[in-house]
Amino acid sequence: MTMAVPAAVLTAGVTQPAEAAVGRGGPVRFRPGKAMLGSYLSLRGRSLTESLALRRKQLGRDQRIVHRYYPWTGYAPVSEPEVPPGAVLMVSWDGTFHKRITSGRSDRDIALMATRLAGMRRPIMLRWGWEMNGNWFDWDGAHNGRKASGYIKSWRRMHRIFREEGATNVAWVWGPNWNSGPDVSWNRFQNYYPGDSYVDWVGVSGYNFSRESPRTLFTPIVDAYGGRKPIVLAETAAIGHGRNTKAPWIRRLSTYVAATPSIGAVVWFDTDNQKGTSRNFRPDTDDEALAAYRKMARSTRFSG
């Protein structure tokens, strides 16, 4: 069934087709006007089950997406018992150097992960090889000859193997960083895009490390892809920049998402336990921040 929609809407200063991503998203469907809200949860001293219970008590609702990180090899679970049945599992799966994939040497590992995820028999968002336009991972362009072509070939090979293994419950999430490092022509995020036929959701990672606004972080990706793919803010959170600075940023995020119809999901990086850093990304570090997050979580826009 098609929906009558106006030709265009103005979102955060960017004109987009109003029909952006309607009926799309692959196995994890995009619902116009309804954003799923979830998180990566790793709270010091608490299991995932305990962390989910805490957030349920604070917010009065469950997580719609539960985000997990998998290494490239050595871990391919058959189930995720701590992830509630009603939640979408989002898996961020590490990559490797492009030649290890394009040569076929990793086909067995890819097929194993495909069969394991297929066997979970639940909708899964798979974000493989994220932030490929940075210079901090084995799979980024900076570690692969300063070229994007190997990344695209790797993605398409993996996509084919997943299809052959029957992993039809997997929605493919392509997720660049909000800015490129290094910021040079060969490393622009557009160069890494595998193509519309190989991507179900477009993701983006962005934090307010230097006081960036949500509009600064996310509008370039929304502008480039929101007209044809649903957008997931796959990694985002606010760190404090002094007293009572998280709450205003959360309110700006809520306003930005409300004004940007192509955003179909927001996944908070909810941790005080990130290895190698003392940053605290939790939305409950102070009462005002928690109140702002609770209001966002309970709003109609975040009822996906």
UniProtKB/TrEMBL annotation:
Q: Name one GO molecular function term.
A: mannan endo-1,4-beta-mannosidase activity
The answer on whether this UniProt entry bears the keyword Hydrolase reads yes
InterPro entries documented for this protein: GH, GH26_dom, Glyco_hydro_26
- Record's keyword terms, sorted: Glycosidase, Hydrolase
One Pfam match = Glyco_hydro_26
Source organism phylogeny: Bacteria, Bacillati, Actinomycetota, Actinomycetes, Micromonosporales
Q: Which residues form the GH26 domain?
A: 1-293
Q: Looking at the record's lineage, which domain of life comes first?
A: Bacteria
Q: Which family does it belong to?
A: Belongs to the glycosyl hydrolase 26 family.
**Name of protein:** Glycosyl hydrolase family 26
Q: Catalytic residues per the record?
A: 131 (proton donor), 235 (nucleophile)
UniProt record, GO biological process = substituted mannan metabolic process
